[in-house]
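Why does residue order matter? Because the sequence determines the fold. Keep that principle in mind as you read this record.
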Amino acid sequence: MGNCCRSPHEEPNDGPLTVSRSQFQLNYVIGKGAFGKVWKALHTKSNTEFAVKVMSKAKILAKRSIDDVLNEEKILSTLHSPTIVSMHYAFSDSQFLYLVLDLMLGGDLRFYLAQKKAISEKVVKFWICCIIRSLEYIHGMNIIHRDLKPENLLFDSNGYLHLSDFGTAINILDQNANHIEGTIGYISPEMISYEQQTIATDYYSLGIILYELITGERPYEGANRREISLKMKEEIKLKESDLPKGWSSDILDLVNKLIQKNPRNRLGYHGANEVKKHPWFSDIDWVKLENGALKAPYIPKATSANFRKNLEISYNRDVNNESFIRCKTLLKDEITQSLFADYYYNEDIPNSTDDSRVEYDEPVSRKG
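Structure:
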């Protein structure tokens, strides 16, 4: 493996398979997260549009989240499916990590829900089927997502939903009972109770999303995990009076089976097939859905209007944060930079992790 910290006097490797920031034209912001922003970008070498997640190394260090960002790149390097938001490149410079992903211009499901528009049962069913399609794929690859929520479900231009953000995902075979990940309001009872998580964990979150699509709210609301945990002691069920007029009663049974507190009793514990066989999905051609041949009942306009207007506003709340400033200083040290050494992926070279391709724009000191 190459040296991650090139001498400031050394010319960057500019071979045909090198990936660097200079090859991407960042156009406008389409999302943001804990470590930075997501940009609609043009890869000038291939003239292809992508979404580029730009993450501050200093923020990652300050939040002690190196494992999460490295984990996302590692997991995405093993996943290649149209059911998810796939990775094409991953690389870094002295200050930032760059994750190059499929561009989904339809916006996320949360943005749609925020519009408070009426949603038909037909539309909801198609969306849930898309999510099941994604879960079936990643579970087949032994991956649990653990942060399934509307913000992590993105529309493509054809109206299909794709699963994104694998920072908290984990291999099914790993011990995970001590890990509480995910988002308050969507995390499963077993996660809150520090119990081993299985694929049923993701199906619980699916049930919460379906409940929210029907009623406009989640069954367990609270300001923190403790409040939600207390509310979960009383199991809430979807009632017929909660259904919009004219909706099938089969959906009641589906939701209540998905949000079972005991994962062994939860629909989906034995895999996607038992979910797909539920009566509510009796009119779905799963083969056509898998092939992208079903016409989506809702097709978003592929414009910047699908993204939150305030995303362009610069948010540098961390610049005066003592921890952030200290971590930014640490980035001048070779040892600190080496923590990000494995952050590299090039779809033209599968399983690539050649950190010698890192292009630094500032000198990095060498100690030792």
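The radius of gyration is 22 Å.
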